[in-house]
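Lab notebook: predicted structure, single chain.

Context: the supervisor wants predicted structures on file for every construct in the current expression panel, including those that have not yet been purified. This is the next one on the list. No modifications to the sequence; it matches the entry in the shared construct table.
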Amino acid sequence: MYLPTIRQLQYLLAVIELRHFGRAAEHCFVTQSTLSSGIQELEAALGAQLIERTKRKVLPTPLGFEVAEKARDILRISSDIIVLSHKDKHPLSGEIRLGTIPTIAPFLLPKVLSPLRQAFPELILLLIEDQSANLLKRLESGEIDCAILAMPYPLGKLESQKIGEELFWVALPKDDPLAKLTRISSDQLSLERLLLLEDGHCLRDHVISACHAKNNHVSQASAPFQGTSLYTLIEMVSGGQGVTLVPEMALDSALLKQTEIDLRPLAEPGPHRELALIWRSTSHLKSDLKLLAEKLAALVAA
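Prediction complete. Output recorded below exactly as produced.
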């Protein structure tokens, strides 16, 4: 009986997810001809076509989709076997694939990465930045081991451990009348001036939630401008185009220090969002991830 190799399954999964042989080959760190040959060998051994190839499109066959689903399970189990083989190593040693969201990564990671390396010199963190929904999919598929998310967020059966909490601050132009205030409540922020991230960014939902008590209409309408990143929103504020809310962890970042804006705390009681480390309940790294969460919590609080 022919058994597919792990490498062949990785090639197939990459092509089906990326729908492009060239990008799939780059993802797998092989040449396109190597990847294509591997998939052809798999198809020949199985006696079935898994990928439809045209000049413009790469289309998985129905069987290709089914095999890819099984491949995800096999690759996840294979990864767990590697973890089990190293269970007697020192805590937090080896490779951990950590996902983070764009409104956390540039502000938290510079603060925690160096202390983590000092505390756990054998730890190798592979960092992936993506939106929350995508990170959960990648976590459930086994593509990553854990993720740092902003809460609340629906996690399903995934486990989490709180690592911190923070308030929101109002970012506004230097000459804005609201800059005369020491604190700003949400009912002083007009919808016409409030700049939000586009749908898909959980910071958008947390900003709406923080303002909801006194600014009910914020959640019922679209802001005049929706950015793809917090950097874009800050530049818009600096240019006098409106106001936005930023997480407290961003206050000391170069992003805010290099722009002409004023910052005032949001008056609504907090915390306005919590930070948590998320992982699969079945993960063999669970004990290490709990230790990582504890260390991250200590570094966030420092």
